[in-house]
TrEMBL record:
The keyword tRNA-binding does not apply. The chain crosses the membrane at residues 124-143. This is EGF-like domain-containing protein. Residues 1-17 form the signal peptide. Residues 91-102 form the EGF-like domain. Keywords: Membrane, Signal, Transmembrane, Transmembrane helix. Gene3D superfamilies: Laminin (2.10.25.10). The lineage of its organism: Eukaryota, Metazoa, Ecdysozoa, Nematoda, Chromadorea. InterPro entries: EGF.
Length: 177
């Protein structure tokens, strides 16, 4: 137990003896602190600033941010349909959204999202949903075929000047039944 308490005390002078060993990603170490280059912020200059202009506040922050960014240094991402990750530089999007700011809907993602929801539903609820949809599709197809046959019949009657039977037109369009 005493060894655990003494170990940090022995290592503290070693850390103070090498002050310039601090990591500085986009900047230079000046007097033991990381001085960030243009467009970067953070304790080790690891956060990119997304300023709308080159103007800066007296504290070095941005006067305005680009779309999708906020904060004094414009280094915190704004996620429309999701939440920022731990670094606040990327978004973790809610399904079915995607894109840098979770503001895009791709057709494949939407289909996948709702197919997964339908598959996880109770079979009774699923049949209650699918049966009416199947009836609607069948009714729409039937009505569409009848309208198409009527249009062709009307077109042929006006060009040929003959009375045609509806059954003959349907047979021409859809084959024998």
């Amino acid at each position: 137990m005493y060894r655990l308490l003494i170990l940090p005390l022995l290592l503290l002078p070693l850390a103070q003896a090498f002050p310039n060993t601090q990591r500085c990603i986009h900047g230079k170490i000046q007097m033991g602190k990381c001085e960030c280059g243009d467009g970067y912020t953070g304790s080790i200059c690891h956060r990119e600033m997304h300023c709308a202009t080159f103007e800066r506040t007296p504290a070095g922050g941005c006067t305005g941010c680009l779309h999708g960014w906020e904060g004094q240094d414009c280094d915190k991402i704004v996620c429309e349909h999701g939440k920022p990750d731990q670094t606040e530089m990327k978004c973790l999007c809610d399904s079915p959204y995607s894109g840098q700011y979770c503001d895009e809907l791709e057709t494949a993602n939407v289909y996948s999202h709702y197919n997964n929801k339908a598959a996880s539903m109770n079979p009774v609820l699923l049949s209650i949903t699918i049966i009416p949809l199947a009836i609607i599709v069948w009714a729409c197809n039937t009505y569409s075929r009848k309208r198409r046959a009527k249009k062709v019949e009307h077109l042929l009657e006006s060009t040929v000047n003959r009375d045609l039977k509806s059954s003959h037109v349907r047979e021409l369009l859809y084959g024998k039944k």
